Fold each of these.
Amino acid sequence: MVFPSDIRVLISIKKGDITKEDVDVIVNAANPSLLGGGGVDGAIHRAAGPELLAECRTLGGCSHGEARITKGYRLKARYVIHTPGPVYRNGKSGEREVLRNSYYNSMKLAHQNTLQSIAFPAISTGVYGYPKEEACEVAITTVLEYLRDTGYRMQVVFVLFDDENYTLYIDYLKKLRG
Ligand code: ADP
């Protein structure tokens, strides 16, 4: 797939903790209850404080692949977009489409709120068990396609917690740059 360089330059990759990101919105790899969990979800709720859970309780949950927005409370980020990614079973249960929807619907919500910068974790690659290499490809291509197809411009940073994901993202972006 070919993406123009004016879109590719909007993407950056970092290793670290997404809760520290100074962006308009950080994305949470949530679970459908939206009531908190482990992994990145737990870290975001701890850093944002109890007000985040209180707002999440008012939302009534969220299906896999959909997305909801809340305020960021004690985070540097002004907002949090919560999206439950797919639980990986066998790769033949629509997992790729649901993962794509999580990235696409998060981009769409950020766009609708006219946000200028967004940070994503590697959704579904922890407890939900999605193979990291394919998840990386879905993440980057969905975001690039969104920017290309809508014409909306926003800075996008992928914040990877582990070395394996970080290396995969760096290599995949290099490959796209050719
Ligand atoms: P899921 O249930 O969607 O798999 P997890 O939170 O278990 O969600 O994992 C998703 C990814 O988030 C994993 O790659 C994990 O290493 C990563 N992660 C965990 N904590 C953080 C954090 N503080 N910042 C960024 N990424 C994180």
Amino acid sequence: MPNERLRVAVRGAVQGVGFRPFVHRLAGELGLAGWVANDAGGAVLEVEGDADAVRRFLVRLPAELPPHSALTGLEPTFLAPSGLEGFEIHASLGGAKTATILPDIAACPDCLREMRDPRDRRYRYPFVNCAHCGPRYSIIEALPYDRAATTMKRWRMCAACLGEYENPGDRRFHAQPIACPDCGPRVELWNGDGAVLARGDEAVRAAGRALSQGRVLAVKGVGGFQLWADARDPAAVLALRGRKARRDKPFALMVRDREAARALCDLDAMEERLLASSEAPIVLLRRAADPRARVCDPVAPGNPRLGVMLPHAPLHHLLFEEFPHPVVATSGNLSEEPISTDERRALEDLRDVADLFLVHDRPIARAVDDSVAAVVEGREMLLRRARGYAPLPIPAREGGPRVLAVGGHLKNAVALALDRAVLVSQHIGDLSTENACEAFRRTISTLQDLYDFRPEAVVCDLHPDYVSTRYARSLGLPVVEVQHHHAHALSCLADNGLEPPALGVTWDGSGWGPDRTVWGGEFLRVAPDGFVRFAHLRAFSLPGGEAAVREPRRCALGLLYELGGREALDWEDLAPVAAFGAPERRTLGRMLERGLSSPRTTSAGRLFDAAASLAGLRQTATFEGQAALELECAATGAPAGAGYPFPLVEEGGVVIVDWEPAFRALISDVRAAAPVPVVAARFHAGLVGAVVAVARRAGEPRVALSGGCFQNRVLLSGAVRALRAAGFEALWHQRVPPNDGGLALGQAAAAALVLREAPCA
Ligand code: ZN
Ligand code: ZN
Ligand code: FE
């Protein structure tokens, strides 16, 4: 393995406790070069050297902290080696100009110890917290961060709490959410009518009993409600699926501790660090070959991975003392709506979903969903950036313009570009419901208020009909429009601390192209002053347009039509053809022939859907990307055979990646009854081959992989390894998601480049 450089932003009480000498010593032990410096929120450090040693450093750092230090956050980013030598301790990087709002931090070991100590005054108190842990972003109403500016303002501290709060030597000195059983919030267990069944400790015990009886529990957590059910009990999990109208999408799990996670999944040291971090995200882990604990099939049907998180609120820890088994812990919302935060609202929203409601009276100022992350090729990649991370900044170049980036339409998140940093909001969701749009507007206005931020420009997607675009245009500010895939590519570069030039391989479901067609399988040559569409997947038609997102068989028919015209729509031995009746096929054939409601697209996402459909995996989907996910699952661990051929053809100065030979080979494999995992693996390998072939043709040394398709680990790992083997520098996402949740960061980067050339008056 070549050398790697790792930057770590460390937040917490790490100044004046010997942290920098500790980092120096640890780096020395591992033979790493680098530096460490204090900054406003804690410390920043870089280490460089042997790739394995760098990872050991990251794992040991939080585990071996000097006494009296406490971490509230740790964000690692891998960077290209810069030839660091020796180790330096710098004084300080200078303070940030803006106050930083911390994210919500998982309960710390000291607080948990008190909660379990019968002699402690906070014994079994579910709102125990201190200056090193507890809620932050989800309770802040205004800055400066002070008790009166949080949702804790309604509770008057008792004398004992006030004593701790005012004592500079106490762990709770100025801990704004400080509370105890005498003066703080309380829990209650409600039935579906909102009648109180139990209070305090008895509510927790009764909730635990309800779980063991197969009931669905709505739990008010830190940033919103979760829905809990016994993950071993198929009846409970299927009831939750039925009531939430969530047929197949995998559920996340919460397990009581690391040991319980190890009993379900195989995890390496990096994954374990992430799982047990103070950010406490859901981590996608590989199921153990021979698990010592089991969850029932309906939790994540057919998926070789499980999304697992550890308890992060003290209340969760108490619940696991009553019910020690894995639980499904999924967002407390109705399919695509934002999560519920208020107990009265939840009673309405989740009336038909939950049997019982475990609530408390500490208000949640804003919905902050659980974050989702994975370790890919030895690096962390966030797939949903929310609790534990939002609204922390991503470092950016100094002197950039102040812009508001409004993101896209799906998986929306917004960003504020400040000097030297881009604040990325929590995941807001798909802007297809009124509630989500309201959350979008509210998130923007509160973030702007909190940071006293007045943007000089607003940046949005090129798509004219996105809610976010229309909002951007309504502000009366200069508007910068950024093409969707251009933003993806710049987001990936910014995420890796880089700027153009690069080749951006940006693959997703859809994004508006400047030619007013639907793009989605793009290779963009990105330069500081813009981009050129260097190559793309060959276009095909989607009969019924948007309907194809939920019907992979339509994508397949669109491709078959390209391969063999109307006749191909009668190849009844193929699953997508057989999945339609003859009259439907005639209608679809006419639509394709005349180009009626059959937009042309270069979408890689829809190409995956078509392959999954032809492989016989899935004809209709219950969530976007389901068919592609199943194809990825089928390919996971399958022997890597020869990839299907995707030759490059040049047409009018643009390179076209032609999928026709690949699909002909795929169809003949299917007709020869080749096993699905083989077909799936050959399809992935073929696309990886195409990425490398285009990269060679483009000749850019740096290749940035972005877009929702690169959540697919088989594709991402395959592309990273093949690009490296071919001598390219492969970049992928780390701190923001490759999906549209990362768009706002790319939009902010684009605006910085545009406005650097032509600043607003
Ligand atoms: Zn604590
Ligand atoms: Zn108190
Ligand atoms: Fe996208």
